[in-house]
Amino acid sequence: MNPEPADALVLFGATGDLSKRKLFPALYDMARHGRLGVPIIGVARDSWTDEAFKQHARESIETFVKDPDPITVTQTVKTLDLVTGDYADMNTFRSLRDTLDRLGSTNAVFYLAIPPSAFELVISSLATLGLNKRGRVVVEKPFGRDLSSAVELNQILHDAFAEDQIFRID
Q1: What is the largest CA-CA distance in the chain?
Q2: 3-class DSSP state for residue 69?
Q3: How far apart are CA 11 and CA 113, in angstroms?
Q4: Does residue 95 contact residue 83 with C-beta atoms inside 8 Å?
């Protein structure tokens, strides 16, 4: 399998602890090595402004990366956009679709750094608007609590995405 390169990263849970401690520093590291090259769209339930979101990412990098290069930090933060809203509100996903359209994205990576209880809602909302046909999904965190919940989550994913569009991190 040699998938088409992604043209955007959509980070659900962008204002959460996982993003702060691990994901923004990793994105900085990718940028430092010239491997990022796509816009990053944060999606969060918090009602932050774009500027507050960018400051959050900057502080994350400056806190969790040893001796970050200020130019690379600025370049990384400049790639950020934020979509806010409740995951149960389809308007949140319409805003996400509109942002992807504005950026010309046709092959995004949807990274779910959210509580497992929100996976089904987010995945089904992506599918409702056809966004599942415009990218692939990364599922972060525990993949179920036990075998039966893992099987159920796997079915939810397969209802919206083909197996070669699903990446699991546990």
Answers
A1: 47
A2: coil
A3: 7
A4: yes
Handedness of CA 154, 159, 163, 165 (dihedral sign): negative
* Residue 26 confidence (pLDDT) above 90: yes
pLDDT score for 1: 52
CA dist list (Å): 64 to 3, 26, 32, 133: 31, 10, 15, 35
DSSP secondary structure code for residue 21 in this structure: I
Q: For residue 24, how far is the Cα from the chain centroid?
A: 11
Does this model's pTM top 0.85?
yes
Q: Is the pLDDT of residue 19 over 90?
A: yes
**Residue 31: in which H helix or E strand, if any?**
helix 24-32
Average of per-residue pLDDT values in the chain:
93
Distance CA 97, CA 65 (A): 32
In angstroms, the CA 33 to CA 91 distance is: 36
Q: Which two tokens stand for residue 20?
A: 């702060």
pLDDT digits (tens, 9 = 90+) for 32-49: 999 999 999 999 987 889
Closest by CA to 1, choosing from 118, 127, 156, 167, is 167
